[in-house]
Design goal:
With 141 residues, this protein is an alpha/beta fold. Helices cover 57% and strands 22% of the residues. It is built from five helices and four strands, in the order βαβαβαβαα. A four-stranded parallel sheet has the order 2-1-3-4, sandwiched between helices. 39% of the residues are buried.
Length: 141
């Protein structure tokens, strides 16, 4: 299993913990990982696209933490990063798990730090499902 992880550095302490947990889970599952770090959540979809275009990965994971501030910018970042992640998955037919936290405050984000590991599990499960489906379809021919 070849897993690409794109991780935002914004909200650095939280993002680092999300990434560390994601890496540990990937290792536990036996997935070989490559990690790209980007400045923020809005940059994640483009880096995911680059990884998808390479054809070297069975699944991808997006990791980051977006915390509500006092302006509308939170909604823009939360919505557009999620849309971009989904666009990559659908455009490339590749499992892309969204582990980008979107929370009201740091306490909510800290309570959800296992979402990095969860995103890895989701990506691996979908990649394995894809392989099983392909095998089933090949057998029908």
């Amino acid at each position: 299993m070849r897993l690409g992880i794109v991780a935002s550095r914004f909200n650095e302490a939280l993002a680092a913990q999300l990434l560390a947990r994601a890496r540990r889970e990937a290792e536990r599952l036996g997935a070989h990982t490559a990690v790209l770090q980007v400045p923020g959540a809005l940059e994640i979809p483009l880096a995911l696209q680059w990884l998808a275009q390479s054809g070297r990965f069975d699944a991808l994971v997006a990791i980051g933490a977006v915390i509500r501030g006092e302006t509308y910018h939170f909604e823009v970042v939360a919505n557009e990063s999620a849309r971009g992640v989904m666009d990559v998955a659908l455009d490339f037919g590749l499992p892309v798990a969204n582990g980008i936290l979107t929370t009201e405050d740091e306490a909510q984000a800290e309570a959800r730090l296992d979402k990095g590991a969860e995103a890895v599990r989701v990506a691996v499960e979908l990649a394995e499902l894809r392989v099983r489906l392909k095998g089933s379809l090949d057998e029908e021919r």
